[in-house]
Write a structure and sequence with these properties.
This protein is about 80% helix and about 0% strand. It has about 260 residues and is an all-alpha fold. Helix 1 packs antiparallel against helix 8, helix 2 packs parallel to helix 4 and helix 8 runs antiparallel to helix 9. The chain is elongated and about 80 Å long. The C terminus is likely disordered.
């Protein structure tokens, strides 16, 4: 009876985790709409999307029946996440005008694909029990899951130096926090260290990002407002200069 209740709660939490994770994967959509409109990736970093791609692919392997049975929810959401990250990275490559940066992103994606293919082949051919396969893939998954959660921290240096969170998407940090809480809870029904450890740490990483956002939110507004004001002043100055240039021509024509 208790076991059945725990399993029911686990499934409910798992489905909730899938929904939140889907929002996590979709949270960069406003960022890419902005990139699409401006026609440039500007200072946005590809690191979070590269980290999320490799993380999702590893968790798809972990959730396979021949690796970790009864993990359908893990496979479905991470398979979806993999497809979404491929779309993001494709858009990033299209709107990245820095050839060196674009080549670097392509190289990293290629390395990730080769790594996934090699790990899958080795685990399924060399390791012969689901318990051992779960342990091997689980350890790798922990590392990449932590990388995914920590990836937005790469922007923290920029945020602190500029006192602006303009290039650290808020919804990505918020949904990362909610996702970490949901899957950390799921990992205790029953206890799964390979899911609990990275999502527990991920919750802390995401909380740090939210605190940083709260700290620099007001200064970001002031910086953006000052930038807009400067653009307006420059535009007015150009109009004044152009107007001044026209006066002598009008005077000469009148003469």
């Amino acid at each position: 009876m208790v076991s059945h209740l725990v399993n029911t709660i686990r499934n409910v939490v798992g489905i909730t985790g899938n929904v939140i994770a889907l929002f996590l994967f979709l949270s960069p959509v406003p960022t890419f709409v902005q990139i699409w409109k401006k026609g440039s990736v500007e200072l946005f970093s590809p690191t979070p999307y590269l980290a999320t791609l490799i993380n999702c692919m590893v968790w798809v392997i972990y959730g396979l029946p021949m690796v970790h049975p009864n993990s359908t929810l893990v496979v479905t959401i991470n398979g979806t996440g993999t497809a979404i990250e491929v779309v993001y990275l494709t858009l990033f490559l299209i709107f990245c005008h820095d050839k060196k940066k674009r080549s670097k992103v392509l190289l990293i994606v290629l390395v990730e694909l080769i790594f996934i293919a090699a790990v899958t082949t080795l685990v399924l051919t060399v390791v012969h029990t689901t318990e051992r396969r779960s342990m091997v893939i689980g350890i790798i998954a922990i590392l990449f899951n932590i990388m995914m959660y920590a990836a937005p921290l790469s922007v923290m240096k920029l945020v602190i130096s500029t006192k602006s969170v303009e290039f650290m998407p808020f919804f990505l940090s918020l949904t990362s926090f909610a996702n970490g809480v949901a899957w950390a809870t799921y990992a205790f029904l029953p206890f799964d260290p390979f899911i609990a450890v990275p999502n527990g740490l991920g919750t802390l990483f995401s909380l740090a990002q939210l605190l940083l956002y709260a700290t620099y939110y007001k200064s970001t507004k002031r910086i953006i407002a000052a930038r807009q004001e400067t653009k307006i002043e420059m535009h007015l100055s150009e109009m004044a200069v152009n107007g001044g240039d026209d006066d002598p021509m009008k005077a000469s024509r009148a003469a």
